Every structure is written in structure tokens, then in C-alpha cells.
Amino acid sequence: MYDVIVVGARCAGSPLAMLLARHGHRVLAVDRATFPSDTVSTHFIHQAGLARLRDWGLLDRLRATGVPPVQHMTFSYDGIHAEGFAGAIDGVAEVLCPRRTVLDALLVDAARAAGAEVIEGFTVTGTIVTDGRVAGIRGYDADGTETAFAGRFVVGADGVESTVARLVGAEVYRDVPASGFVYYSYFDGLDWGFHNRTAHGRQFASCPTHDGRTMVAVMRRRDAYGAFRADVEESFRSVVAGVVPEFGADLRAATRAERFRGLRYADSYYRRSHGPGWALVGDAGYHKDPLTAWGITDAFRHAELLAEALHRGLAGESPIDGAVAGYAARRDRETAGTFAFTVTVAALALPPFLHAVLSAATRSPAYRAKFFAMVGGGYPGEEFFAPDHLAALYEEVGTPPALRLLPPAPAPAAQP
């Protein structure tokens, strides 16, 4: 009998298994994949996420893999331009963009080293339910052998198409239809650093990664998907050239080192993430458009929150279902601002309010610093967009009164 069974062993599942095992709990983590292996990803880890790795004793291990640090960022959005970097956030003064083949294997190894049992190549087909509670899983391994495992608690950390979510009937209670799609690859011969650039309903991003290569991603709205796929190479290059023409020339002179990877985005959503004997973490429970690249960082943060809740329950400090319900409620509160901002900018056209605020922010050195701190997870979005702060910003930079737009009233939050 395991204390916790974790389904999915990538950026949410392995940290959860590791942290619970470090608390002395008996943990099993299973994944359909074997490691190292790749998965479609933004790659990017914000400072707040790297702080979690540091606290877990894993950041220096990741640095030692050769992933280059990023300490300068360039953003542009329809004529608004900002360059800079946040100061240290939680003691971390860099961001990283590691390959998932490297990062996920490191996390799986850390879970094993902590004492968790990890079974790779295992496909979950069902849950065991006893007296109305989830009490284990069923599935088969790589050679087709069927096995059942009993556990006091089961966690789905198995992504957007979560098997655990489907099996327990976890409903979506906030859903924002996806805006676009992404294609990305890796290039030799580029020295761009980090960019996130948007213009004319098109976006590209770049970040240095392992092996001296630069990961370049382009994003467009969904209605362009068919035409884009007709000639991916040319479509990809034309997006970059259309946003920053000189970068288009650089890209044509560079060498693409790997195949293109493409993905039509899933909707952004919150899914009910707790129930009798089960929980969801990572993209299984909460997913948003990748444009702001918060997926990996949020997976780390929420794995830590859930580990704390499960430990309290397993240790008898509080009823386990109540502790896990508290984790889900806290996750929803703390991500509301990021979710709203992400689904708004993912449309690749700024609404008037955001255009007014960001245009003013780039003209104020102090507020520009707050922008980069917010991007890195070190300054609350609620404060960045607070009406009294915006009024002072508009006054500082001389925004005309007619353009001093304040945030719209928030819509009532949906509840699970």
C-alpha cells in the first residue's frame, strides 16, 4: 500500500513525488513515457520557478547541464517596446530555458533519489474505488503486463488530456477557448538571447538552450493554421520577418538543427482538482495559453503546495480531503491574475486598457522595473494594475486624460 500514487512524472509529478518521499511517505510515480524523452513545451522557467529548484537542491544540477543563463529580456507588442530584467527574485537573478529531455530526466532522478518508486512506460487504464474513494490505479507496463497498485491517495499530474481527470469525472469550471497555435524548432548560428515579440497578429519568441542552440517559436491565431501548415518552413520564417525584419534575415542565414514541432493549443481552463482520495496538479488541473510561459513554473509551485497539503493529511495534522481542497482554492486565488492576463494577451492584439498601461509603463524607468518583476513572478499583477498606481503612472509620463484607462471590473469567479 502506497501513501500516494502520482500519475505523470514530468514537471509536476516528479517534484510532488520527490517532496512527499522526502517527508518519509511511501510514493509511487508512473508515466507512459520513458526518460529522457521530449515533450512539446515552452522550455522557459521563471525566476520564481528556479527558486523552487534551488530550495529543492536541484538548481545547481540543472545549471551544470550547460543550459545558458538569461539576464536580459526584450518584449515588444504592437509598437510597445521594453528591454531589461528583473532584479533578484527570491534570490535568483536569471532565467533558464532547458530542453525537456534534460529537465524531466533530472526531476525523475531526483524523485528516485528521494526514495520514490518510479515506473516508466506504464499506462493507467482505471482507478480502484473503495467506499466512494479513489484507492489505487490499474494499468499495464511496456510489455503488456497488467498490474494494480493500492494507495491512500491518487494524484493526476498527467497533463491536459489527463487520464485521472477523465476517470474521476473532474469537470472544467472555467474555460476560455484557445486563441492560437505554435510551431518551434532549434537553430544553430543565432545569438538573439531572449525575445518575446508580437506585431500584426503574429508572435515569435526565442531563448538560448542546451548545446549552443536557440529555441525559436512562432505563434499565430487558429484561423491561420491551415495556410501555415501548407508550407511550415516558409510560414515560420515569414512570421519572424514580419515581426522584426532584421531577425528574418538572421533566421534565413541560420541552420535549423531539428524538425519543427507544432501544437494547436488546448483551451485555457480550471478543472476541479480535488475529490475523495484524489487530486490534480499541473496542466491536469489548471492550464493556460503558453504565451506567458508559466506552465513549468506553476507546475513546480503547485506541486509544492499539494505536497504540503498531502503531508499534513497523511501525518494526521488535518483531514486529508480538506487539506487538498485548501490547496486547490489557494491555487485558484494565486493564479487568477496570471490567468486573466495570459488569456488576454494570447489573442495577439492588445485591448485598449492593456495598450494604455504598457505603453505608459515603458516610458517610466521605475514602472518598467515593476513590469519585469511582474514577468518574473516577483511583483503581484494586482499591484501592477492597481488603479491608484496606474493613476500615478499616467501622471508621471504625461498620458493624455482620455487615454488614462483603468482596469475593467473583474468578472465573478467561477467555482468548482
TrEMBL record:
<feature type="domain" description="FAD-binding">
    <location>
        <begin position="2"/>
        <end position="319"/>
    </location>
</feature>
<dbReference type="InterPro" id="IPR050407">
    <property type="entry name" value="Geranylgeranyl_reductase"/>
</dbReference>
<feature type="transmembrane region" description="Helical">
    <location>
        <begin position="339"/>
        <end position="361"/>
    </location>
</feature>
<dbReference type="InterPro" id="IPR036188">
    <property type="entry name" value="FAD/NAD-bd_sf"/>
</dbReference>
<keyword id="KW-0472">Membrane</keyword>
<dbReference type="InterPro" id="IPR002938">
    <property type="entry name" value="FAD-bd"/>
</dbReference>
<keyword id="KW-0812">Transmembrane</keyword>
<keyword id="KW-1133">Transmembrane helix</keyword>
<dbReference type="GO" id="GO:0071949">
    <property type="term" value="F:FAD binding"/>
</dbReference>
<protein>
    <recommendedName>
        <fullName>FAD-binding domain-containing protein</fullName>
    </recommendedName>
</protein>
<dbReference type="Pfam" id="PF01494">
    <property type="entry name" value="FAD_binding_3"/>
</dbReference>
